[in-house]
Specification:
Pfam families: Pyridoxal_deC. Keywords: Decarboxylase, Lyase, Pyridoxal phosphate. One of its GO terms (molecular function) is pyridoxal phosphate binding. The protein is an alpha/beta fold. Among the domains are: 77 residues, no CATH class; 176 residues, Type I PLP-dependent aspartate aminotransferase-like (Major domain) (Aspartate Aminotransferase, domain 2, 3-Layer(aba) Sandwich); 86 residues, Aspartate Aminotransferase, domain 1 (Alpha-Beta Complex). A seven-stranded mixed sheet has the order 3-9-8-7-6-4-5, sandwiched between helices. The chain starts with 10 loop residues before the first helix and ends in a 19-residue tail after the last helix. The structure holds pyridoxal-5'-phosphate. The site of pyridoxal-5'-phosphate (PLP) has 12 residues, from helix 7.
Length: 509
């Protein structure tokens, strides 16, 4: 067994290894990385230094074992092949890279940020993302993310080399506000140029939209034209969406993974119908959750800039983008879809910079976190059959999400909300909700399957659902009511605390 030490990379430890006494081998697993480079493995095995360690170390063998794969071995970050390669800047790498390597290389890149500040204050406290002059590396990292996500979403590249434009946001809500503003502005500019009325802009969307769409419509004074769901259809009907288009339509929202059931709306069908009917209306795809799922799990599914009518797309970094809240992204197919009036050029932070977000200051860490995840994980799919997604059997195309409800049963004294309360007592937060309008007030429960939802966690959840149903089956109507009231009184959002009752909230509106 070969133990490589982190300190072995320093000149000091190299001396130790070359001296005649038995070398000190310090193993710091936190600094060890597994690499996939068979040639490198061979070279290191042959090096004099490691041979000496193998021969001369008289101590009992360490319980640490190398990965058995013939193409894996362990070394420090700077000894890895990644240290000699360019960091990915334009396209997500095809394969993953070890986490220590991604972390260290990004950290080195960022060391240029705020140098003057460090000289002045001794250390850099927090990076304000908006300060491009002080933190140019953070701004560059945002550009790399936009480029990678644009390519992931098949943004076309024009003959002059120009392509998608985009920005990071606090989340999909901000991204959607910006995209709606851009669609409204383009519609308004066109109508004004033609001498037509601009009094009644409208936007078309499914009744299953997330609340941020209703906010956008209200804040930006747009009439909402809803394509209603039906008891057997929880996503937009492409024909109905096209039927609603009129001269005042600024755009159509199509969702890649609805909040209610996780199902993908059919972007390709909506785009094709618009082309077929020669309707000059843009599509914005709300890919808040699906944008970081579909490209990897269903690469053949055409939902992005491959569809002619799609002009902008949003995605949340803090959902399946695997970054802490809040980061989101909005991208436009090309600069013509982002009216220049929405882009502010300022220079009060020391350099000319463009800003087209609703907020000004924000932390840079989430953008950096997003870049880390993009280069750390790469595009590679796990081997067939090992994808968590494939274990979640979905009836329709969509996110790894299970939405379920009770069968209609007039004898049952409790509903999905009661089950959600009961699960809360056992520590599970499984939200119950009423479906979108026009679905007979259907109630549902929803489990969003994320990375940490292991088989054993799944078994525990199912066991707790069974136990809870059993418990509720044995209660009469009166006891269920009392039980619900008790659960509501004694559980905060954590599902466990029985102290500090919730403060009375004043409901606005
Ligand atoms: C489909 C959809 N759009 C938009 C949003 C809002 O996203 P964010 O929380 O990133 O603002 C969500 C959040 O649940 C969503 O599911």
């Amino acid at each position: 067994m070969v133990l490589l030490s982190h300190t072995g990379d320093s000149p000091d430890s190299r001396q130790k290894a070359d001296s005649t006494s038995a070398p000190e081998i310090t193993v710091d697993p936190g600094n060890m990385v597994h690499l996939a480079s068979p040639g490198h493995h061979q070279r290191c095995r042959q090096s004099r230094q490691w041979q000496r360690i193998l021969i001369e170390d008289p101590r009992p063998k360490s319980p640490l074992h190398l990965v058995e794969n013939s193409d894996s071995y362990t070394t420090s970050v700077y000894g890895s092949r990644f240290a000699g390669e360019n960091l990915p800047k334009v396209e997500m790498p095809e394969t993953e890279m070890p986490k220590e390597v991604a972390y260290r290389l990004i950290k080195d890149d960022l060391s240029l940020d705020g140098r003057r500040g460090r000289e002045a204050h001794g250390r850099v406290l927090f990076k304000n993302f908006i300060d491009y002059e002080e933190y140019p590396q953070s701004a560059d990292i945002q550009n790399r993310c936009v480029s990678m996500i644009g390519r992931l979403f098949h943004a076309p590249v024009a003959s002059d080399g120009s392509g998608a434009v985009g920005t990071s946001c606090v989340g999909s809500s901000e991204a959607i506000m910006l995209a709606v503003l851009a669609m409204k502005k383009r519609w308004k500019n066109r109508r004004t140029a033609a001498g037509l009325s601009i009094d009644k802009p409208n936007i078309i969307m499914s009744s299953a939209v997330q609340v941020c769409w209703e906010k956008a419509a209200r804040y930006f004074e747009l009439e909402e034209k809803l394509v209603y769901c039906a008891p057997d259809r929880f996503i937009i009907d492409p024909e109905q969406a096209a039927d609603l288009v009129d001269e005042n339509t600024i755009g159509i929202c199509v969702i890649l993974g609805t909040t209610y059931t996780g199902e993908y709306e059919d972007v390709r069908a909506v785009s094709d119908i618009l082309v077929e009917r020669k309707l000059d209306v843009p599509i914005h795809v709300d890919a808040a959750s699906g944008g970081f799922v579909a490209p990897f799990i269903s690469p053949e599914l055409e939902w992005d800039f491959r569809c002619e009518k799609v002009v902008s797309i949003n995605v949340s970094g803090h959902k399946y983008g695997l970054v802490y809240p809040g980061v989101g992204w909005v991208l436009w197919r090309s600069p013509e879809f982002l009216p220049q009036e929405l882009v502010f050029n300022i220079n009060y932070l020391g350099a000319d910079q463009a800003s087209f977000t609703l907020n000004f200051s924000k932390g840079a860490s989430q953008v950096i976190g997003q870049y880390y995840q993009l280069i750390r994980l790469g595009k590679r799919e796990p081997p067939p059959g090992q994808q968590l997604h494939h274990h979640v059997q979905t009836r329709r195309r969509g996110l790894p999400l299970v939405a379920f409800r009770f069968k209609d049963d007039p004898e049952r004294e409790y509903d999905e909300f009661t089950l959600a309360h009961q699960l809360r007592v056992r520590g599970w937060v499984v939200p119950a909700y009423t479906m979108a309008p026009h679905t007979n007030k259907m109630k549902m429960l929803r489990v969003v399957v994320r990375e940490d939802f292991s088989k054993s966690r799944c078994d525990n959840l199912i066991a707790d659902i069974k136990l809870s149903i059993n418990f509720l089956d044995n209660l009469d109507r009166e006891s269920i009511k009392k039980h619900e009231a008790y659960v509501l009184r004694h559980n905060t959002a954590s599902g466990r605390a029985t102290h500090n009752p919730l403060p009375t909230l004043q409901v606005l509106g």
